[in-house]
Amino acid sequence: MLDALGLDRQAELVYRAMLTRPDWGVDDLVDRLDIPAETVRACLDQLAGLNLARPAVADPRRWRPVSPDIGLEALLAQHRMEIAGRQQRLERARAAAADLLATYAALHLPVAGGDLERLGEPDDIRSRVEWITARAEQEVVALLPDHHPDPAGLAVRAALAESMRARGVRVAAVHPYRVRTDATLARHLRRMIGLGCEIRIAAALPVCLLIVDGATALLPSVPGDRCGTGGILVHHPTLVAALAALFEEIWRGAQAFGTPPRRDGNGLSATERELLELLSRGLTDEAAGRKLGVSLRTVRRMMADLTTRLGATSRFQAGVRTQQLGWLADARR
Q1: What is the per-residue pLDDT across 19-47, written as a single tens digit (0 to 9) for each?
Q2: H or E stretch including 59?
């Protein structure tokens, strides 16, 4: 229990024994504590270095403990001085960091003007994201349809998330279903969950979106652009509230990453319902796969499974059975 003061367990055991039985010598400590003689002597040297024990005046071969109210109080006073010194150095470092941040902001970050702020280069966007998330106080939520971020981008996301979680900020993100088949991204998401982030997946995400504390939102400057290629920072409260409502709607319908897909009363997963809806509107398998973010092979495998479950022998018959059973009507409710 006194390791914070530089006293290891065995030295503490020897010290407690000496306080209880000050008449014990080295041999008694060896016998009663069942500790090798060289270990006892090392403990005595450690206690002497901390001013908790000293050789007896009458017989230097024997040791006497220093009273805890003297020895331990001196140690505590020394540690309090060290902690105060570290605190002063920390305050100086914090002030220097704040000065550096202010200088960086003045030189590199755009000045917010009005309700919308256009960001051009990917480096500008990354710097701005780091800046606003570093100041998040409550939550940071995101829709991240781009499932092929570069390794450096994943590292930045993890570092930002770790920093935010350390400050008690909620971090929640929705990714597309296809992340489950990407080993690198799946591993990254498990790491994020380990940091305390909330991760869900959904069939399709309409836009890349980041919202900080319900007050600032980041969108791509061009619809359909990859995350981080060009952005618009939104400050207008009404616009941000609308985007937050969009996130919450998608979040409610998404499933937790790593859990089996939820199924409705007809036994359909969200992806299967979406696939049937897309095909009923005349989309090809390839186009439906792009909408869902899955491969053509996955679309055909899903349809083969649905056809079997419907008891049909062809895609046409499966479509008829879907209408007869009201699967699409149920999905639209």
Answers
A1: 888 888 888 888 888 888 888 888 888 88
A2: none
Pairing of strands 63-65, 53-55: antiparallel
Angle, helices 26-33/9-20, rounded to nearest 10 degrees = 110
Among residues 31, 46, 66, the one where a domain terminates is 66
CATH number at residue 198: 3.30.870.10
How many C-beta atoms lie closer than 10 Å to residue 299's C-beta?
24
DSSP code string of 20-59? H-TT--HHHHHHHHT--HHHHHHHHHHHHHTTSEEE-SS-
d(CA 226, CA 204) in angstroms, rounded, equals: 14
Give 175-229 pLDDT, tens digit per residue. 887 787 778 888 889 999 998 999 998 877 778 889 999 999 998 877 665 565 6
Number of structural domains (the chain) is: 3
Alpha helices in 140-182 (DSSP H): 151-166
pTM of the full structure: 0.52
What are the CA-CA distances from residue 80 to residues 46, 86, 195, 316 (Å)? 20, 10, 33, 80
Which residue, 141, 160, 146, is CA-closest to 207?
146
Q: Tokens in use for 256?
A: 């937790």
